[in-house]
């Protein structure tokens, strides 16, 4: 239509609209004469006018005010009208909503879109939530509906008007503490009997109403973000989820040791977490904590909490301390076997004022019973020059003081003294001590290294230290390498956390490859910090000219590792350390991983692989023998900047930023 | 920039915008967007309390707040209304497109999921995008009618305010409105 024609049409339209409806037909006949097209156009518009009703009569802001506010307030999700945002987090948002059918307030929890794009995850979300909705217990939040509206997945639950334990935790009297703990234990007992483990007991997930009734929220939902088993995996959707860097995980302070290690958990993980809560309510501080996430994890795995201060005549508190101790055993077989048992102890304290505590079980002294956690390490060595990345165990951390089973207790004098100022025996002792620490970071507690292994590491340390010296023209200085690492470490750590691949120590690779430059290209065409081949990079969404961009490559590398881990089938969950060569290609990496599994069923860790390398075939030995000591050398330097006169903080501390 | 924009700047920018300087709108947008959020906030709050309110009054208030009391020049205020409507349209349509893209666009391009999660329903996004396209078509046939709709629907102006801003009679606005509404309704409901 042209503007001129429209003018004509409009004239007819306006004329007709000025008339009463019954006169319009004859008006059209008359004015349009034999212009059938004009008549048709005008009558269609007349009809439109008559039926348009409220169309665009309300200004957009009436309907879309919430868009401007960046909120969902006012919009409907199925039968639920959102009234107010109560909170948001990595697991989604929670809203106060009005159930228009039943005319009641509900809490509406929505699954964030990035989680909802994964079918497997979604099915699990629904399965878990439905299982949890079958729980019928006064202390468990009632789930009304697990549903979907358009593409929003939600859980509608009863709305609790109360305070979270987070708000209350510092101000509870002892009898309130016992009462709250009992209600939680009671909820856990019921859920555990139904086969449901909460997995995320923390103050934010506990609410207390004004009348004192405690509700445990979000049963089973934590499983949603856990590492998934391979059978459940949807690679394409997964890729999308995990390339979204920055999936923030919640606090680690309430995690059990088995969660910290990312191994299979059972109901006893909830008993631990309740122990942490009880401790925190009593002591007004956390039992396991640290300056960084990693420190906290190490604390959970290795340390005993500061004992609760209780004087001899406070039998009630002594009994509670006993309960806390029993819930907080690192070895879950030593904890309360069931929440019911814990509940009945709490009950006895409430009713009798104390427990009959057998004197032998009081007190700590648990250190020697700590399970020796064996890191399972897989080394898939590349045939080419370059290792691309080391993905480290979840316990990467800053040095903490070690406990009983350290072979050579660290000497304070050694750690502060510059490496170059040490005598050779001192250097060896330093390396031995630090190697143990780095191994502990990776979740391993190795026995002392043999002399050959120590000297091999020392060779690498020495060669790094001499790099960039006036008489050395080949490599860049340590300072330059490590200062570059300072920007890369947080980025890489975030990418890998988003893929649920445990924390990185891959940053030491630039040091392992002493000639590394941020865009180094090898003869095979592999390039950049992660040494992908261009084809592989493209597969993971990185163009050739972006391969030196760490920001692009870090998520791709995390994705790549996670894919290979998934291909390991059921063993992928037990992986705590992967050392991979990207430029060998997925097939090669997979084969190497399989070979390792077949050779020793992953029972080997990093250093034993080195020390007992005769168990593996010749080619593998040749490829990996150098990496292992080189890696440790790099890690020892990175963790002890002062001893090597570097301006950086210990690199592992950057991983939390 | 928002904070430092003075009343004089505002007047200047409004004049530049009227004279067709495209960059003026870019400069005005964050400022106006802020005001729109404020308006939206009050709108939602009052709606919850069961009151209806005139958007015009709120836009007016916003203008006075921005411009200060010293330069209540009617023409500028009219332009401010017009700019507000345009910004509102841009914001909503942008949002709607992203919403539809997140749903249908597949995997090719990254969409910031969080930005589009819950806020706008798919149906609403469809409506808005359809209306926007139809309105652009209408603007080619009859620019004034398109402006009437933009001011009324996106700017929230009453018929009277619209007449003042466009400097046309109330009668003309009424007639423009009914014709435009019919035209748009037909456009968005027929298969195009």
Topology of this protein?
The complex is a heterodimer of chains A (657) and B (192).
Chain A: H1 3-17, H2 21-32, H3 36-51, H4 60-69, E1 76-77, E2 80-89, E3 92-99, E4 104-110, H5 113-116, H6 119-133, E5 143-149, E6 152-158, E7 162-164, H7 165-168, H8 174-193, E8 206-209, E9 214-216, H9 235-243, H10 257-260, H11 268-283, H12 293-302, H13 315-327, H14 339-352, E10 377-379, E11 389-391, H15 412-416, H16 424-441, H17 451-466, H18 478-498, H19 509-512, H20 534-539, H21 550-567, E12 577-580, H22 585-600, H23 606-611, H24 618-625, H25 627-639, H26 651-654
Parallel strand pairs in A: 10-12
Antiparallel strand pairs in A: 1-2, 2-3, 3-4, 4-6, 5-6, 7-8, 8-9, 11-12
Chain B: H1 7-18, H2 22-48, H3 55-67, H4 74-104, H5 122-141, H6 143-154, H7 159-166, H8 170-189
Helix pairs in contact in B: 1-2, 1-4, 2-3, 2-4, 3-4, 4-5, 4-6, 5-6, 5-8, 6-7, 6-8, 7-8
Report on the architecture of this protein.
The complex is a heterodimer of chains A (657) and B (192). With 657 residues, chain A is of the alpha+beta class. Helix content of chain A is 45%, strand content 9%. The model of chain A is unreliable at 225-250, 359-414, 470-474, 502-507, 570-584 and 599-617 (pLDDT under 50). Chain B has 192 residues and is mostly helical. Helices cover 74% and strands 0% of the residues of chain B. Chain B contains eight helices and no strands. Chain B has helices spanning 7-18, 22-48, 55-67, 74-104, 122-141, 143-154, 159-166, 170-189. Chain B starts with 6 loop residues before the first helix and ends with a helix. Residues 105-117 of chain B have low confidence and may be disordered. Classes of the chains: A alpha+beta (657), B mainly alpha (192). The interface between A and B is large, with 52 and 51 residues.
Proportion of residues in β-strands of chain B: under 5%
Order of helices and strands of chain B: HHHHHHHH
- End-to-end CA span of chain B: 42 Å
Biggest β-sheet description of chain B = none
pLDDT averaged residue by residue of chain A:
70
Shape of chain A: flat
Greatest interface and its residue counts?
A-B, 52 and 51 residues
Rg of chain B, please? 18 Å
Runs of chain B in which pLDDT lies below 50 for 5 or more consecutive residues are 105-117
Number of helices of chain B: 8
Biggest β-sheet of chain A, characterized? 6 strands, antiparallel
Helix and strand content put the structural class of chain B at mainly alpha
Oligomeric form: heterodimer
- Low-confidence stretches of chain A are 225-250, 359-414, 470-474, 502-507, 570-584, 599-617
